[in-house]
Write a structure and sequence with these properties.
The chain has 162 residues and is of the alpha+beta class. It has one domain: START domain (Alpha-D-Glucose-1,6-Bisphosphate, Chain A, domain 4, 2-Layer Sandwich), CATH 3.30.530.20. Helices cover 20% and strands 41% of the residues. The protein is built from three helices and eight strands; from the N terminus they run E-E-H-H-E-E-E-E-E-E-H. It has an eight-stranded antiparallel beta sheet with strand order 1-2-8-7-6-5-4-3. It is globular, with a radius of gyration of 17 Å.
């Protein structure tokens, strides 16, 4: 659902600053919530289902980095919040060439919310990338790409020995 950022002018008229949207995926994973949380919260484990991350401690907290290729540049994700077995949030703090799908990520937040299903061996994952410019030419392709990444996360966690 699009969210619109609105501002009030000095003569009390409203104008739209930027229509914002969210990429949203929900899935059920046949793995305990602690296992799913670890896969999302640990930079080493993220590399098993997405890109290999390099984590660095900074004055703003932990920043994870990965390099999907020269056409994109290095993606930097600041870890905003970790609530064990419940919530993980990252913020994209890097800038990218306008020709890269990652150019629409700057300032967006990646939110993973976890809940245990009725079966304690099953976790419900609600993923959102919020603050996304709904006018971006990359919105649909990024949405589809995140769908594939979420499928990969599910496959990795549901495979024997994960």
């Amino acid at each position: 659902m699009p969210v619109v950022s609105v501002s009030l002018t000095t003569d009390n008229r409203f104008f739209v600053l930027n229509p914002m949207s969210a990429i949203h995926h929900q899935l059920s994973i046949n793995a305990p919530v602690a296992t799913v949380y670890d896969a999302i919260a640990s930079p080493d484990r993220i590399g098993t289902w997405w890109n290999k991350q390099t984590a660095t401690r900074t004055d703003r907290g932990i920043v994870m980095e990965h390099n999907p290729g020269a056409e994109h540049g290095v993606v930097k994700l600041r870890v905003v919040q970790l609530i064990p077995n419940t919530h993980v949030q990252w913020e994209c703090i890097s800038r990218h060439p306008k020709t890269s799908p990652a150019s629409a990520w700057t300032g967006t937040h990646f939110i993973f919310e976890l809940t245990e299903d009725d079966d304690p061996e099953t976790t419900n994952l609600n993923f959102q990338q919020v603050g996304y410019d709904g006018r971006s030419e990359f919105f649909e392709s990024n949405k589809a790409a995140w769908g594939e990444v979420m499928k990969r996360l599910k496959q990795v966690l549901e495979s024997p020995g994960s």
